[in-house]
Amino acid sequence: VQLQASGGGLVQPGGSLRLSCAASENIFSFVTIGWYRQAPGKQRELVAVIRSGGYTDYADSVKGRFTLSGDIGRDMVHLKMNSLKPEDTAVYYCHGYRGSNAYWGQGTQVTVSS
Question: pLDDT tens across 32-59, in order?
């Protein structure tokens, strides 16, 4: 199973970015699929995840600003990030849990700075 992340970059505060994660397997085969992030000096934390059944959970810090959606036809998930803040700066990782295994994509850097 492979997860390929894309879409990071540099954006000004208040700006938007969209991250995409392409899965090598049908996204319905994942128990959960979504995004984590890790800021310098901090632990990796959950950002948003789609759970089997279609429920989506968000970290409190991104609720109302980030939206996670699934692209079933292309086996992708997208994280649309609006109203970005400097504290959103981190390496973002796509993550999926399938069967009894956890899978990580490569990280993509998101930097929010003026």
Answer: 999 999 999 999 999 999 998 889 999 9
Q: Which of 53, 25, 42 is nearest to 91 (CA)?
A: 42
Which residue carries 């929010």 as its tokens?
112
Do 36 and 103 meet the contact criterion of CB atoms below 8 Å apart?
no
Q: What tokens appear for 46 in the block?
A: 């959950």
One DSSP character per residue, the chain reads --EEEE--EEE-TT--EEEEEEESS-GGG-SEEEEEEE-TTS--EEEEEEETTS-EEE-TTTTTTEEEEEEGGGTEEEEEE-S--GGG-EEEEEEEEETTEEEE---EEEEE--
Per the document, the length of the chain is 114
